[in-house]
Structures are given as C-alpha cells and as structure tokens.
Amino acid sequence: MESKSPSFSRTIKTEVVCPNDTNPLGLLKGGRLVDWMDIAAAVCAQTHSGKICVTASMHEINFKAAANVGGIIEIIASVTRAFSTSMEIFVQASVRDVLTTEKRIICEAYFTFVAIDNEGKPSAVCAVEPHTELESKHFKNALDRKNWKTENVY
Q: Which end of the chain is more exposed for a tag (fewer CB within 10 A), N or C?
C-alpha cells in the first residue's frame, strides 16, 4: 500500500451558525460544533483510506472562543498519522464575521477513526507521508498521543 500526504485528504467544511445551532445566549452549542467537526474528520479519513471509517475516539477537544449567530464556521481536517487500521485526524474550527471578515480559531481537536471492511471489521490503511515541518510535528506527536491513550486506560 502506498503512502499519501496529508494534503491528499485535507477536508474543508463550511457552516453558518443559525439560531437553531445556538444556546439561549445566541452562542454556538459545543455539541453542534463537535458534530460538524466529526463529519469533516470522517470525510478526511474516508478520503485517505478509500474505505468507510467510524469514529473511535476524540482527544483534546479544546474550545477557545465562542461563535455567534451569523458567524461563518470553517472546519479544516487533516490526517496526522495512520496506524495499521486507524488514523488520527487533526481538526481546527474557525469563525469568520461576515461584516468585519475577522477570523479566529474557536476549537481544535484530535479524532481517531478506524477503517472498516464490508463486514464491519477493521481494515488496513495506507501510511501518511508528511511533507512540511508542521505535518512532521503532527506526525511525531500522534504517536505520543496514541501511546498516552494506551498507557492511561482505566
């Protein structure tokens, strides 16, 4: 199986924060944002692997700022590393104000997806070949996160 660069499967998803996406204060609900991020990560994982993929875990979900009704949400998902049947996906969400064009990061998270075959069993995925310094850093740190999760099972 040949390796692929993170840019091969990089996924960008755009949403607009509508009133039904918000809490009583008019702020985007965290669960709605995580749902959108999970979808972007799934598309990224499936594009990288060429297989149906399912969410295995979410790690380090960090909410950094709020988004208001009318905000334009941009979600970028990239594969950081692939293991035998799983892939770690880094997802970053930003909000842009349509009037000022100001853009700020509102959430970052790491998702792990597992590729499955037609019988629902884990299936092999191709490796990730980082090309940039940032991709190499994500690649290295993905192994550290995987080892941390394995060592800290309750």
A: C
For CA atoms 19, 61, 5, 49, the dihedral sign is negative
Per-residue b or e along 126-140, where b marks 16 or more CB atoms closer than 10 Å to that residue's CB: bbbebeeeebeebbe
Q: How far is CA 76 from the centre of its chain?
A: 7
* pLDDT single digits (tens) 117-149: 999 999 999 999 999 999 999 999 998 888 876
Buried b (16+ CB within 10 A) or exposed e, 50-72: ebbbeeeebeeeeeeebbeeebb
Q: How far apart are CA 113 and CA 139, in angstroms?
A: 15
Cα–Cα nearest to 88, from 55, 61, 118: 55
Q: Are 77 and 90 in contact (CB under 8 A)?
A: yes
Q: Which residue has tokens 């994500």?
A: 138
- Per the prediction, the chain carries an average pLDDT of 94
pTM metric for this prediction: 0.92
Residue with tokens 């790690």: 59
